[in-house]
Amino acid sequence: MQGLITNTVLKSLCASIKTISRILPVLLFSLFTCPLKADDPSPLPIVVISQIVQHVSLDLEREGILAALKDAGYIDGQTVKIVYENAQGNMATSNLIASNFASLKPAVAVAISTPSAQSLMKPMAEQNVPIVFTAVTDPLEAKLVTRLDARPEAVTGVSDALKASSQLDLVKKLVPSVKNIGVVYNPGETNSVKAVQQLREEAMKRGFTLVIATADKSSDIVSATTKLVGKVDAIYIPNDNTAVAAMESIVILGKKFQLPIFAGDAGSVERGALAAQAYDRDTLGRAAGAKVAKILKGEKAGDLIVETDHPLVLMLNLKAAKDMGVTIPEDLKAQAKIIGEKP
User: Which residues on adjacent β-strands are paired with residue 157?
Assistant: First the structure.
């Protein structure tokens, strides 16, 4: 009887701890975040920026947005009030940020990532606030817009969708013997689900086998990646915010087990991945920022086309190549932006 009581108490205690761990980020956000109150209106037009998590690529996009606004004459504190919040990978926090932002009645709401955009959709629609998104792979699949050109909803932005063919072709060029490619992603991210679906289709055409490992949060990425060891010849990380946020941990495993790590974003190569055929994130951010400026000047978000076509940049990390046992062809080096020391 005493054992049963002890087990019951322990189970109850564990459940309480799990509940607290889920709501703690939201409570902390509520306690320490109060950038601007609705009853303290700014005399300047307000632009709110919501970002799902902190990593190099998303940060570069945010800096690009701010640079474009500055170029258009919108300087924080002088001609516009900019309010930025980061959900640190927590969807509940992202939803709370969106709710708080709506109470500010901003002129424009900016979403950096698909989860951030999905959080903003309902509260901004209720306030008739236009939304500009970036770092979104498939705005149609994510139900942010009904079409990419002129549309009824006040939402526009910049897509970072990559062609799966170009990603797999790069893997083949750098690791010609590759047969099995591991992919790590969060199935809760709509953009990642779409990217993996396209990777499957292209992998079949090329005779590759995709081996999938999923993780619901960044702290599970190491465990998911470890499951691929011994099963794959290389690992590809799509533009998945959960996985990209843990890129350094993935790189450590790549070096330890001589597994080449490929990425869908340039920032990951700077953080230790082997290679990426990717977009310049500053360029994408500036494109989104230019749309924000146009809306502030009176244009309608629905009249601004969703941009999907951007030039790709080949990124190679020579130190990672050495650490992961890959020899990079000289012709690829000649056309790439090189990161890291010479092998």
Answer: 133
The count of other CB atoms within 10 Å of the CB of residue 5 is 9
**Residue 277: enclosing H or E segment and its boundaries?**
strand 275-279
- Report pLDDT digits (tens) over 169-207: 999 999 999 999 999 999 998 888 989 999 999 999 999
Question: Which conformational region is residue 42 in: left (phi greater than 0), alpha (psi within -120 to 50 degrees), or beta?
Answer: beta
Rounded distance between C-alpha atoms, residue 255 and residue 206, angstroms: 26
Q: Tell me the Ramachandran region of residue 246: left when phi exceeds 0, alpha when psi lies from -120 to 50, beta otherwise.
A: alpha
Element (H, E) at 312: strand 312-317
CA nearest 158: which of 67, 61, 87? 61
The Cα–Cα gap between 283 and 60 comes to 9
Interatomic CA distance for residues 144 and 150, integer angstroms: 13
Report strand pairing: 275-279 vs 312-317.
antiparallel
Give CA–CA dist 109/17, Å, rounded.
35
pTM of the predicted model over 0.85: no
Q: How far apart are the first and last CA of the chain?
A: 66
Residue 331 to residues 111, 185, 327, 334, 336: CA-CA distances in angstroms?
A: 38, 31, 12, 5, 9
Q: Which class for 165: exposed (0-12), middle (13-18), buried (19 or more C-beta within 10 A)?
A: middle
By residue count, the chain amounts to 343
The CB density around residue 305, as the number of other CB atoms within 10 Å, is: 13
What is the β-pairing status of strands 108-112 and 46-51?
parallel
The confidence band for 5, taking pLDDT boundaries of 50, 70 and 90, is very low
